[in-house]
Write a structure and sequence with these properties.
heterodimer, A: 102 residues, alpha+beta, 20% strand, B: 265 residues, alpha/beta, Spore Coat Polysaccharide Biosynthesis Protein SpsA, Chain A, five-stranded mixed β-sheet, 26% helix
Chain lengths: 102, 265
């Protein structure tokens, strides 16, 4: 690496805004999961959608591709919440790590 | 049921796509744990690829890649034959310059959808358009960089339409008002999907996250699975240098000069 390149690297500021956006994109992608032949994105929206079914057991919901899929509300809720919590925890760890960058 | 990745590297010009594909194959083995087949018209002597399929290349035109000081022949016609050339039941068709650094694509391989590709993108560091449009008709572009397909009739129909657009590319260029040179697989695939969906945008083929493109002209460093991108941006009327890092993220590296520096690493 030539000296000007090294100088430029040292002088470079960390772009927190863009880095946060990239991390958000990454974890939004990691929230996606497959279940019962449908694709779902874990999160409050899916949780709310399951709640609106108002019953425990079988229900038909629209997946990410707007395809009606027959699901078991208990199973889908458990998978969604597990993935949501796992990925949110990982997101927090990475977010805090990013904040230390200068 | 077999699952694997297919990479095309044909008609070597000034860019050694086979060497770039070798690096891509190593990444695929490490993160996705699936076999990789190379489709090429050149003799290949290495142990990285699980299979090598020989297929002739066709010139798609000349292209100047930003970041390089040359124009090179671009042998990109024939990717539409991936359906017939792939040895797998479920195939992940990847560009040689798409480097996998996560297991995210496993989700696509496990999904029941027969055909999937990216409809949205982020161009790092500065482009956040999400959707690319082409031609006077402003057709939304679907990316041929990452394509998952199976042996279904629907996949076959899309590839048949892709080949038809490829054969009649100038006609479609006139019809939709875009430059026919050089040939672009992204355009041919986009038009094939449009035709297969009754002149509407398909609703069931989009990979549910954006393609991450690393635009040329920036300093890129790769350390293990962590990318550091250094770039210039005008802030308050002053040109300043910034950087970001991204770990465990699959990237489409558009800087061919950088790719060549990474060969063998």
């Amino acid at each position: 690496m030539d000296p000007t390149e090294i100088t430029q690297k040292v002088k470079s500021r960390f772009d927190h805004s863009l880095a946060r956006q990239m991390v958000k994109e990454k974890y939004q992608a990691k929230m996606v999961f497959a279940h019962a032949g449908g694709m779902w994105r874990a999160g409050p929206e899916l949780t709310a959608m399951i709640f609106t079914c108002g019953k425990i057991g079988e229900a038909v919901l629209l997946d990410l591709y707007e395809t009606p899929v027959k699901i078991n509300t208990t199973e889908l809720m458990a998978l969604s919440q597990q993935r949501w919590q796992e990925q949110m925890n990982a997101w927090l760890v990475e977010y805090e790590q990013l904040n230390k960058n200068r | 049921m077999t699952t694997g990745a297919v990479i095309f590297a044909q008609g070597l010009g000034k860019i050694n796509y086979i060497a770039i594909a070798e690096r891509a194959a190593k990444q695929i083995h490490e993160y996705l744990d699936i076999p990789v087949t190379l489709i090429t018209d050149h003799p290949v002597d290495n142990t990285v690829f699980d299979q090598v399929v020989t297929a002739s290349a066709e010139l798609g035109g000349q292209r100047h890649w930003p970041g390089t000081d040359f124009t090179t022949n671009w042998y990109n016609i024939g990717r539409s034959r991936a359906f017939e050339l792939s040895p797998y039941d479920t195939t992940l068709l990847l560009d040689a310059d798409y480097w996998v650094y996560s297991d995210q694509l496993k989700l696509i391989l496990e999904s029941k959808h027969s055909f999937q590709c990216h409809s949205t993108y982020i161009g790092l560091p500065l482009k956040h358009d999400r959707v690319c449009y082409f031609g006077k008709a402003h057709v939304p572009m679907w990316w041929a960089t990452v394509v998952k397909f199976d042996r279904s009739e629907r996949s076959q129909d899309i590839f048949t339409a892709w080949q038809m657009v490829e054969k009649n590319y100038h006609h479609y260029a006139n019809l939709f008002g875009f430059d026919p040179n050089p040939f672009r697989n992204d355009y041919a695939l986009s038009l094939a999907l449009l035709l297969m969906s009754g002149n509407q945008q398909p609703t069931d083929v989009a990979i549910p996250w954006p393609l991450i493109n690393i635009e040329p002209g920036n300093q890129i460093n790769l350390d293990q699975n962590c990318l550091t991108l250094t770039f210039d941006r005008v802030t308050a009327g002053e040109l300043k240098s910034f950087k970001i890092t991204a770990a465990d993220t699959d990237i489409h590296v558009m800087d061919k000069k950088f790719l060549e520096t990474q060969i063998g690493n």
